[in-house]
Amino acid sequence: MRELLRNTQRACVITHRHADLDAYACGVATRELINRLGHEAFLVVPEGPSYSVKSFISKLGINYQGLDSCGELSLVFLVDVSTYAQLNEFRNIIGNRPVVVIDHHEVRNIAPTVAFIDPDATSCSEIIAQIFRELGIEPSSEVATLLIGAFSAIVAG
Fold this sequence. Notes:
- The protein is 36% helix and 15% strand.
- Helix 2 links the parallel strand 1 and strand 2.
- By secondary structure, the protein is of the alpha/beta class.
């Protein structure tokens, strides 16, 4: 991850449209990880998060962190996105930029530069939590809460 970000000025983390809690938590965690590694990163949630995410973060007093666009960027992270169809118009901002995919589903029509894909993982959140551990970085309490919420929602669901 550190090597991948070496020449990155600005990264955009994009979830699937109407992000569920797993996609949103993974997106927020990925953005935080990139920022903590010393790079600028922004989160985009196409068409906004699902009602259940809005309810969850509202009850916990967590502010919504998504933007409508990333502007100029040098690297794209797709989290919990296995096909371009899940991005709607946001697929157009990828262009020729390097793409990193973090997902627990097999990727279909995306050719990532780097992929963190584990079909045996229960969630995208599980994968990004593992990346935090491998890099020896502890997530903030807000990100940890989102990740735990995503794990719990999957187990309960």
